[in-house]
Amino acid sequence: MRRLFFVILFVSQCFFVYSSNSKRDSLKQLINVSTDLLTYDVLYQLGEDYISDYPDSAIYYADQILKSENLFLDSVFTMKANYLKGKASYRSSDYSNSIKYIEKAISYCVKNHEKEKADCYNILGNSLIQIDNYKLSLSAYFTSLNIRNGLKDSLLISSSLNNIGNVYFQMQEYSKALDYYNQSLVLKENANNLQGIAVMRNNIGNVYHKMNDSLMALSSYLKALDIIEFESNVDWKPILLENIGQLYLDCGDINKCMVYYHRALIESERKGDKISIASVKTSLAIAHLKNEDYNASLGLFEEALTKAKEIGVARIELDCYYYMSELYEKKNNFEKSIQYFKKYDKIRERIYRENNSKEIAEIQAKFRLEKIDTENEVLKQRNTIQRLEIDKQKTRGLYFFSLGVLILSLLIYSIYISRFRKKHNKLLTEKNKIISDRNKSLTSLNATKDKFLSIVAHDLKNPFNAVLGFTDLLIDRYDELEDSMRQEYIEIVHKSALHGSLLLDTLLTWSRSQMGVMEYNPIIINVSQLIEEEMEGLEEKAYAKGISLELNEINASLVYADSDMIRTVVRNLGNNSIKFTEERGRIIFSVKAEEGKAIISVEDNGVGIRPEDRIKLFNLDSNYSRPGTSNEKGTGLGLILCKDFVEKNGGEIGVESKEGVGSKFWFTLPLRVNKIEIKSSTLERVEEECIV
Hints:
It is a single chain. Among the domains are: 11-152, Tetratricopeptide repeat domain (Serine Threonine Protein Phosphatase 5, Tetratricopeptide repeat), CATH 1.25.40.10; 521-670, Heat Shock Protein 90, CATH 3.30.565. Helix content is 69%, strand content 7%. It has 24 helices and seven strands. Helix 4 (75-91) runs parallel beside helix 6 (114-130), helix 13 (254-271) packs antiparallel against helix 14 and helix 21 runs parallel beside helix 22 (563-579). The chain is globular and about 110 Å long. The termini are close together.
């Protein structure tokens, strides 16, 4: 089990050209003799200077900015102070507070501070990836990349490309990670940024390592080491040395592995990097364990575990407990082996529970905010109607007053007023129609949200009730039950938990799509190849029911769409067909291109759908769901999610079905469109991630 660590590399702007202590002393002397704005700037510069070695001091100076009575006049320094606290919290591994402060900083970003906004999203992505929230991290990094593309800064763009590659690396999508790393490498080579090139060589080596291409991995690592070998200020050198040691360990060369691990430990201790020290000691302990040197291994594990607890890095604790359990098992001390495995399992469960709780809380908060915004919009529209009615009454009063005063010009005035009223009434009618349409849309949106929350409350409650009920029975009557009955209860608990997990995953995906959290990233896709890959994932379910899967490619189609969304659509439609097809049935995936669009269909010879049920399939209000031919349960949201994703990609979705004969679900996508993206030059500060 390998660990992930990130090191922020940055080039800070110097306020004075002296040593670090001289610079800090000079800045402190300026605080008492400066105006408000200059004082804020000095405090911010002090915080930036302290952030790498004393992050708590950086937070202190940021708080000094926020405590100022006059700060409400300047939102820029409010943003900068929160950004400083977020970055310092990230340095201290306090990721939840880092996310909180960075989100606050983003709320204060104004239009002419796009660079700072991109930096905020970059740090947000860094913190989210540390708590394994890869999808939201990816969304933050893509937002940062889009802003930096507009700024036309090649180094900042390359930093974002690297970070996106890091997320795909953690998601085990290695081909995508390699693509983004190579894009970043080209920009760094064009700028002759040697340390940046070394970072990318390290990360590319990690991808080849994961793809079991040891020669390419070692070549890439050594190229990175050649660049930074004699550099003394490279904070992430221990990471690279540890990576090389890990590669030799995986290749079975323990001696070379130990050489690089000890070099990494020396570098980590020289720099006082507690996280890196704990990581390298864990790696050394694993190497000794594989070499059957149990005493040395145990001592290193205990040192790494103590350090991990001190700095609060749960992932290193997780690794230590796991391998200490394995160590005691090899020493035939099964009691201690089980003891350490239980500690491992407890931390793993805590991490999983914390991540899920954060995601659900985030969704609930965003729904509450949207509901408040909706109510405010309705009030604004009512006020608009009232103002228009008042204007109309004033116009009538003006008409009658003018009629009494200007009797001689009655005819001319009457014509004028008549024309004015027609024009005004037409405008009023158009505005009333717009307001009416918006009211209908907002009412529909509120109904959709209420329906969504009712699904969460009802459909999630059932599987968890089943899990709780049967586990209570197993706890209370375990010894009384026969083995077959216990097995049956356990299977029921498993199916209920699986159903609840599927529903929760679908709900999270759909809600993120509705809230705009899910980024739309279209690329050119070979849709036949995508379907073949998804069919491989469906083969196990199909095989269990004896169902054959076939692909009918009438003509090759390249489409321009979001790959992840289209995969979700194909997977959902394939699962539905398997679910409602009898044993030894047949499912045909088809692709054809005509009239500027690709038509993809999934056709089965299953039970079919009644005409009165077809209109319910893509409608959230109906929440239509029924059991499959083997009594498989569904969430009722899969097809709604498919419709949403297809429409986001500029397509349409539909169904043709006859009860007892089968069903054919189809959707369209626009064929390939050539897109050209212009990328560009350079700025002063680069923030990026190096992975181990």
